[in-house]
Design goal:
The chain contains three helices and six strands, in the order E-E-H-E-E-E-H-E-H. It has helices at about 40, 75-80, 95-105, and strands at about 15-25, 30-35, 50, 55-65, 65-70, 90-95. It is globular and about 40 Å long. The chain has about 110 residues and is an alpha+beta fold. A six-stranded antiparallel β-barrel has the order 1-2-5-4-3-6. A hairpin with a 2-residue loop joins strand 1 (about 15-25) and strand 2 (about 30-35).
């Protein structure tokens, strides 16, 4: 059987905490906009990965000082994301691959 590495590697480390700026209905799910601290902004890219409270999510959009993620019904049902509202503090973990790429580019 062939084995491949797929998806976002989450280590379970917390890089920083951030505040939710908004939660809006989006189809059958929700779009959540979260502040993007400068300390991890270089590791965050649109369509890239980020862990929010340990949940691997795809970055749906980037704006000045914020990023957004789309939450599907399953994620809302299975995680604490169902309780997110404006002002909620969340823990963020940057993508580990992005971190290693950035470190190697600085060398």
């Amino acid at each position: 059987a062939e084995s491949t590495l797929d998806g976002h590697l989450v280590q379970g480390h917390i890089d920083t905490a951030a505040t939710i700026r908004s939660v809006q209905a989006a189809g059958t799910g929700k779009e959540v906009t979260i502040e993007l601290p400068a300390s991890i902004s270089r590791y965050v890219a649109e369509k890239g990965s980020i862990a929010v409270d340990g949940v691997s999510l795809t970055v749906a959009g980037l704006d000045k000082g914020t990023f957004s993620v789309a939450l599907i019904p399953h994620t809302l049902e299975a995680t604490i994301a169902k309780h997110y509202k404006r002002g909620t503090t969340v823990n963020l973990e940057a993508d580990v691959i992005a971190r290693h790429v950035a470190r190697n580019l600085r060398r």
